[in-house]
Write a structure and sequence with these properties.
- The chain contains 13 helices and 8 strands.
- It is an alpha/beta fold.
- It has 2 domains: about 220 residues, Phosphoenolpyruvate-binding domains (TIM Barrel); about 40 residues, no CATH class.
- It is elongated and about 85 Å long.
- The mean pLDDT is about 95.
């Protein structure tokens, strides 16, 4: 089997033109990224969703640049043949351009990402343009933007009326003009997501945005039901239930230790008889009684 080669932004645009769907999944550590690459995923996103599924926060807002750098570096060590995108954390690209570029530099140099993702539309176009001009690929993200969840009134589907649809279209075109290589559409009605996908030349990657986008992204923990208290989501399909398998496996381990079934004879290392005699002055059979 030939070694996998990482995508680049030119290949992604060609995939859109050819109707070849792009696959993306989140990953936050070495083993999950390694497994994702071995499964031939196109893009790994080190999302600030790590705040919810890894760090135990109620939202993505507490996630810091240090968090993103740390987790991106782990992913990069595992998935050297996969295109890696890292989220810019909350409020790290709404100040000065210099401050924004310092954050981007850390994620690229210390985290070894290939690109960054930014939530927002026309209001962040200037920052996007500056990052792209500095030589860093940017993935846009509109629709439901978790970093702005308090402002937009919760986790609501976007694009349900004409005014909202127009806003999303304008945001998508503003991001395209600013130089993004793709746009994530989150919780957007299928009709509006399709219209945006046709209107822009860059790939659109949906999550809860229906069937007529150029690719799909899901959270690692949703795909695999990797959670102790998993909540079903309408826009997610789970492909395995490793949470249940892990829980059952650990419970079986606890039971076998408690009942002294583990370790068994096959897990034991035995010393020579002369060692036992030297320690206890007895033969081995007597020492182990």
């Amino acid at each position: 089997m030939a070694e996998k080669r990482a995508l680049n932004i030119v290949k992604m645009k060609k995939m859109k033109q050819e109707g070849n769907p792009i696959t993306m999944i989140t990953a936050y550590d070495y083993p999950s990224a390694k497994l994702a690459e071995e499964a031939d995923i196109d893009i790994i996103l080190v999302g600030d969703s790590l705040g919810n599924v890894v760090l135990g926060y109620d939202s993505t807002i507490p996630v810091t640049t240090d968090d993103i750098v740390y987790h991106t570096r782990s992913v990069a060590r595992a998935a050297g043949n996969t295109f890696i995108v890292a989220d810019l954390p909350f409020m790290t690209y709404h100040g000065s351009i210099d401050e924004t570029l310092r954050t981007v530099r850390r994620i690229m140099q210390e985290g070894h990402a290939h690109a960054v993702k930014m939530e927002g539309g026309a209001e962040i176009a200037l920052q996007v343009q500056s990052i792209v001009q500095a030589g860093v690929p940017v993935l846009g993200h509109i629709g439901l933007t978790p970093q702005s969840v308090n402002q937009i009134g919760g986790y609501r589907v976007q694009g349900k009326d004409e005014q909202d649809a127009r806003r999303l279209m304008e945001d998508a075109k503003a991001l395209e003009r600013a130089g993004v290589f793709g746009i994530v559409l989150e919780l957007v009605t299928e009709e509006v997501a399709e219209a945006i996908s046709k209107a822009v030349s860059v790939p659109t990657i949906g999550i809860g945005a229906g069937r007529r986008v150029d690719g799909q992204v899901l959270v690692f923990h949703d795909v695999l039901k990797y959670d102790s208290d998993y909540r079903e989501k309408r826009f997610v399909k789970t492909y395995a239930d490793i949470g249940a398998e892990i829980r059952q496996g650990i419970a079986a381990y606890v039971n076998e230790v408690k009942t002294r079934q583990f370790p068994a004879q096959e897990h034991v290392f035995n010393a020579e008889d002369t060692v036992i005699a030297g320690l206890y002055g007895k033969v081995k059979e007597e020492a182990v009684k």
